[in-house]
Design goal:
Layout lengths: L1 H12 L10 H20 L3 H11 L3 H6 L11 H32 L2 H29 L5 H38 L5 H27 L2 H30 L6 H29 L13
Amino acid sequence: LVGILTRQATELLTGVPTPLGSDPARLTANLHLSVNLIGVMCAVPLAGALSRLAGRWVPSARDREDAPRLGEEALKTPELALVQARHEVLRLADAVRDMLAGGLKALRNGDSGFNRALAAKDNRVDRFQREITDYLSRLLGLSLTREAAQSAVALIAASDDLESIGDIVVRDLIRLADKKALSSMDFSPEGWKELEGFHTEVLGLMDATRDAIRAEDSLLHAACLSRAKRLLAEEGTLRLRHIDRLTKGVAVSQESSRIHLDVLHAFRKAAECLADLNRAARGPVHSDGSATIPP
């Protein structure tokens, strides 16, 4: 189009004195240069918007690297498909653990920028969970052995529970961190010690659960479930201890006390998700105390 317009303009202006010259060759070259300069001047203000638009259409190298690696060809071999899906569930667990670890930092730092960056990680977690679930659902539509079907169902449940923990970080912990920062309040030294200790135990349960998923070990899942039950009981004890401090006037304030208890409850909800994950992976318990475990 530019070439056609340039030729037409050259024919019209040849022999006519203009700032671009009257010689046909020089006039053509100058017209080309002028049109290109005008195009550049028009495009510069739109560069940012065009770049963002292109980013939506074409995945970045980082997005491609972060995307779940679930091969279509593997669906023809269920055992291979399950290996790939389990590997992606482990990557999902790593991402969720990173978010959960950041939850306490958000409460400590009161940095809105850090909180926004932490919340943005939930998008990756949601994508992983969605693609893992879709992939395994397709696998379940094929002819599978009973054991393979049990494994697929257990992995779907695991990805759902892990995604729920990511939601807890965003909807509960980051919200509470923002509220705490806006109010310029703090917890008592005893309160911080309890929250940090319980948070560390939940992270430890997360690590043990990840090891159980990797090992496909029913005994490890059973041990993780017992550990989760102890944590849930411990949360009740910590809650009562905090209320006792509040009645004695030790807590910093009523408002900080409410946030403290809400944070403690958020950690408890994360432990409940891990309990559900390990219960599903362990399989049903029979009357003789044995369990049916997806291999």
